[in-house]
Amino acid sequence: MNDSGEERSEWVVDTVQQSFHEDVFDRSKQIPVVVDFWAAWCAPCKLLTPVLEKLAVEGAGKFVLVKADTERVAEAATEFQVSSIPAVFGVSGGEIVDFFHGVLPEEQIRGWLGQLLQHHSIVAVRALEETDPPAAEIQYRALTEQAPNDSSLAIGLARTLLAQGKDDDCRSVLDQLEQRGFLEPEAEQLLARLNMQSRQGGDLESIRTQAADDPQDVLLQWQLAEALSGEKQYPEALEICLAVVQHDRHGLGENARKLMVDIFRILPEEDELIGEYRRKLAMALY
C-alpha cells in the first residue's frame, strides 16, 4: 500500500502498478473500493479529487478511495478500459460493479456511493447465508427496512427464511412480493420449493397402492403425483401429472399443471426433463 503522506486519511490510498491488484481487488473483498483514475495535467480531475477525498474521510471506513495516477498505472488503466479521465470505478467483492466518467455534482456522487455500499452489503450478507443463516436473516431485515422497495433484498430474506425452515415467514414475504402482480424468477423458484416442501411426509407407498388398485381415479393419481414430487421422484411425478392434465384438464388437471411448472422451476436449467415435459404439456393443453 502506498499512502502518500502523513496528512492523508487512512481511507485514501495512492497506488502504483505493482500494488494495484492488492490495493483494489484484494481490499474490495473486505470493504468497498472507489478507484479514481486521474493525472496531474487533468483539470477536471483537480475538481473531482477533493470531493472524493472529502467523502472518503467523511465515510470514515465505509469505503476506501484508491487514487490511480494513469501515468503510474498504465496497465491497470488499460484493464479498466479507461478512455478518458477522470474515470471512477466502484469495486466490491473483487469485481467492478459500477463506474462514471467526468465530474459529477457532489449529491450525485453521494447517491452513486450509496448504491455501491448497498451492493457490498448485499454481497456480504449473501455470503453469510451459507455459514450463519440466522445472522443473515437479521442483516436482510435491517437492509429491507432501509430499502423496502428493493425486491432483491426481500428475495434474499425469503431465501434465508426457507433455509431455516421458517416456511410461514417465507411465504409471507413471497406473498407480499406477489401483491405487485408478478414474481421474479428466483422468487418463483423459492415459492416452488416452498410448495414442494409442503408435499413431503406423505405415505407414498400407501398412496401408490391405492392408485394402482384404481388407476381410473384421477384424484388418487393426483395425490400420487403430489407424494412423488414431495419425495423428489420428479420423472414419475411429471408423467402422472401429464396424464391428469389429459384426463381432467379443467379440474385436477390445473393443479397438475401447476405442479409440473413447480418441478420445472426446481430442476436445474439444463435438465432434459424440462424440455421434454414442457413440450408434452404444451401438446396436452393446446
Shape: elongated
CATH superfamily of the largest domain: Glutaredoxin
Structural class: alpha/beta
Number of strands: 5
Overview of this protein structure:
The chain is 62% helix and 10% strand. By secondary structure, the chain is of the alpha/beta class. It has three domains: 12-105, 3-Layer(aba) Sandwich (Glutaredoxin); 132-198, Serine Threonine Protein Phosphatase 5, Tetratricopeptide repeat (Alpha Horseshoe), CATH 1.25.40; 204-285, Serine Threonine Protein Phosphatase 5, Tetratricopeptide repeat. It has a five-stranded mixed β-sheet, with helices on both faces. Strand 4 (87-92) and strand 5 (95-101) form a beta hairpin. It is elongated, with a radius of gyration of 27 Å. Mean pLDDT is 91; it is low at 1-7.
Which labels suit this protein?
single chain, 286 residues, alpha/beta, Glutaredoxin, Serine Threonine Protein Phosphatase 5, Tetratricopeptide repeat, 3 domains, 13 helices, 10% strand, elongated, disordered N terminus
Topology diagram in text:
Blueprint: E1 12-14, H1 20-28, E2 33-38, H2 43-59, E3 64-69, H3 74-79, E4 87-92, E5 95-101, H4 106-131, H5 133-146, H6 151-163, H7 167-178, H8 185-198, H9 204-213, H10 218-230, H11 234-247, H12 252-266, H13 272-285
Parallel strand pairs: 1-3, 2-3
Antiparallel strand pairs: 2-4, 4-5
Helix pairs in contact: 4-5, 5-6, 6-7, 6-8, 7-8, 8-12, 9-10, 10-11, 10-12, 11-12, 11-13, 12-13
Short description:
This protein is of the alpha/beta class and 286 residues long. It has 13 helices and five strands. It has a five-stranded mixed beta sheet, sandwiched between helices.
